[in-house]
Design goal:
Growth Hormone, Chain: A; 23 helices; 80% helix
Length: 411
Amino acid sequence: MPLVILLKKCIIGYSYGVSFPITIVILDYWLKECGVTNSTIGLFSLFHLPFALKLLFAPIIDRYKIPYLSKKIGHRCSWVLVSQCALITGIMCMAQSDPKSNILQLMCFASITALADGFQNIALYPYQISDITKEQFGYTAGIVSFGHRIGSISIKVATLYCAHFWGWKIAYECAACMVLCCMISIFFMKEPVITDDFKESNKKNIHALSSHIKEILKEIKHVANKRYIMLTLILYKATDFTIQKMSRVFCLDIGFSKLEIANIVQFFGSIAVVAGGFLAGFFIKKYGTLYSMMIISMMHMCFLFSYIILNYVGNDTNILCAIIFLEGVSGGAVSAAFIAFLYENCRNGSQYALLWAIHELSGTVFRFLSGFLADQFSWNTFFILTPLLSVPGILLLRKMIKIKNELNTNL
């Protein structure tokens, strides 16, 4: 794969990584510092629903052009530009909010930011799959994941440092500047090449949600796999959604500072996640997507039990580093493998939006429940139960592999 294409995919992943944590990760730290309960922090996940429901407006991006801008800079580039402008505006509005005096205002601006992020996510999708072949899906997923993680490192570490030294207002203004840099980079990219299949698919009537569902189901090759694919989208990352939401709060609870979390959890952890993304690319190339997803998920589940050790020893940076490394490598591999799974089951922005929306809606539910679970149980019980949420996804993948092998045998 040419270096220029690799760099392009990395920049696209970076744009995702910079924008997504603003309303999911960084906001959690801010709310916890303001004394908000775990249940309320989990409740805030519901305000990320506009991002999860981007399937409702994906057809607009696929089918309609923005007047004037589309002619000047291209169809997709114009949508990216508009969505990122809205994203910057939402972040700046969040910077002016105060959770202690007006938490509802912050909720409103967080929802607007999530909505703009959803538009950006769909508008950038053709940039991901252009100029590559199906055989390169695994490596492309690794590169996009690499860029995503680098973006996550940048935004999380930068905002936590800014919040520590200058406060949360400056931190969110810094985040807005980082999104602006991404917008400038994407602006200078060429319009992605749209394949004939992509164009033909967009001619179909996909305005209604039922049309979306019929569209993606037609693309699934084996009828027997339909229900398993949908259930995998819902359950595969259930453990990740639940533990990651509360593990950050847990670190603050046992005495780690924002700088320690920035250096260990976000910076060092994100580097481990990047390594895990490349590991997934190797596994997928050698063993295939489904088998790789199953093995990686089993590894990740086992490593997450190590949080029980940290709960016993308390504020110990060496133990935290070891746990974050194990979680990061396995978690990065889980995410990259899941992206490859998405690539194999969608052909255009609307289909991608449906698959991702099913996945994200389940994530919103698990994040929402995580706060209540953390308040209802002790941290020790929480970290014993939540890794077991990976078991249903592993069993589904095993079943899908069995069906696939039986179909191949009968051919």
